[in-house]
Specification:
It contains no helices and 11 strands. It has strands spanning about 5, 10, 20-25, 30-40, 45-50, 55-60, 65-70, 75-80, 90-100, 105, 110-115. The protein is globular and about 40 Å long.
């Protein structure tokens, strides 16, 4: 089964930046899409950003202009650059991979806390 390893979470002050990384096992050619989700306490998990095999990128309205998703095919790694962070960005961030066969895999999540 595909394994996803996430890193880059931590504590940051409002207005600060973090870059999350998610390294996936397997060939990038088998990947249809990779995405970042987040889930805050008491809230439903929500899609933050996704990058599709054809290069199409989508962002949640709440992060447009602040977050950037990118992918390194040689490393099977997806990144989420988060700038101008706000306290409401505080959540556990999860990496998700969708294969060309329609299977979905999740990472363990990494905590992002935005606080003074």
């Amino acid at each position: 089964q595909v394994q996803l390893v996430e890193s880059g979470g931590g504590l940051v002050q409002p207005g600060g930046s973090l870059r999350l990384s998610c390294a996936a096992s397997g060939s990038m050619y088998a990947i249809n899409a990779m995405a970042w989700y987040r889930q805050a306490p008491g809230k439903q998990r929500e899609l933050v950003a996704s990058i599709i095999s054809g290069g199409r990128i989508n962002y949640a309205d709440s992060v447009k202009g602040r977050f950037t998703i990118s992918r390194d095919n040689t490393k099977n790694t997806v990144y989420l650059q988060m700038n101008s962070l706000k306290p409401e960005d505080t959540a556990v961030y999860y990496c998700k991979l969708r294969s060309v066969y329609g299977n979905e895999y999740w990472g363990q999540g990494t905590q992002v806390t935005v606080s003074s």
